[in-house]
Amino acid sequence: MTGTPAALDDLVGRLVKAWNDRDGQAFAALFLPSAEYVTGQGDRFRGRPEIARLVADAAPGLRVAVTGPPSVECDAGTGTVRFPWTAEGPGGAARGGSITCAVVLHGGRWLIATLENDEGDHEAGEPVPAGIGARIEHVALWVRDLERMREFYVASLGGESGALYENPRTGFRSYFISFGQGARLELMSRRAEPEPPPASRDTGHGHVAFRLGSRPAVDAAVVRLEGRGVAIIGRARVTGDGYYEAVIADPEGNRVELME
């Protein structure tokens, strides 16, 4: 049963039961030792001890119920489970949303590599789409005049610029521009070259990046997508500016980054 969707359904049941019992140790045992739990407020808890404390410190009397059938995908020892939930506390205040788990088959049983709680994203009973639990992190543009473009997006569109990143060896320079709580924009440029740059590095669209929540989730997604025949352009690594990411290609060859 460990390799079937039924086993992942069972994992959801044990997860909810351990939460409602406030059994932090039983809850954390369903995660990889290096797993990450992301709350609906964006707080991150890494490793079993932190995840166990999260359960023990939860509001007393808050009981969670799964309100629809989980969406389950599994392939070659990795998978994704997504399910809608609601909770009601002693005061009668109701909450709800959806939970996405990236899971791996480890030691003969399914364990959670990363869990992300998207509180408020789904109504009770609403079908949950299948996928790898990705949300857009940033979109990137190649530009000719980096400083001018940065000024435009900051002064004209109200963005907030991060610090300049520069790689002296390659001549690559970039800024990340933030717009509130949404996805970021990355502006990228290189030093002048004697030959025209290839189309993939000309001005305009560069890539779209999806955040998966943790390094194990990135690794699991690469294994799963490669098994489906998706082209892997770049294996997971830590980039020069500190991001853990892999790069794949969509069916038309566009670059897609998968980030922790």
Could you write a compact summary of the structure shown?
This protein folds into two domains: 115 residues, Nuclear Transport Factor 2, Chain: A, CATH 3.10.450; 107 residues, 2,3-Dihydroxybiphenyl 1,2-Dioxygenase, domain 1 (Roll), CATH 3.10.180. It has five helices and 16 strands. The protein has 260 residues and is an alpha+beta fold.
Essential attributes:
260 residues; alpha+beta; Nuclear Transport Factor 2, Chain: A; 2,3-Dihydroxybiphenyl 1,2-Dioxygenase, domain 1; 2 domains; 5 helices
Can you give a write-up of this model?
The chain is α+β, with helices and mostly antiparallel strands and 260 residues long. The protein has 2 domains: 5-119, Nuclear Transport Factor 2, Chain: A (Roll), CATH 3.10.450.50; 135-211 and 230-259, 2,3-Dihydroxybiphenyl 1,2-Dioxygenase, domain 1 (Roll). Helices cover 21% and strands 41% of the residues. The protein has 5 helices and 16 strands. It has helices at residues 5-20, 24-28, 48-56, 146-156, 215-227, and strands at 31-38, 44-46, 63-66, 71-75, 78-88, 94-106, 109-119, 135-142, 160-161, 165-167, 172-178, 184-189, 204-211, 232-238, 244-249, 255-259. Strands 8, 9, 10, 11, 12, 13, 14, 15 and 16 form a 9-stranded mixed β-sheet that branches. Strands 1, 2, 3, 4, 5, 6 and 7 form a 7-stranded mixed β-sheet that branches. The longest helix has 16 residues, at 5-20. The chain is globular and about 60 Å long.
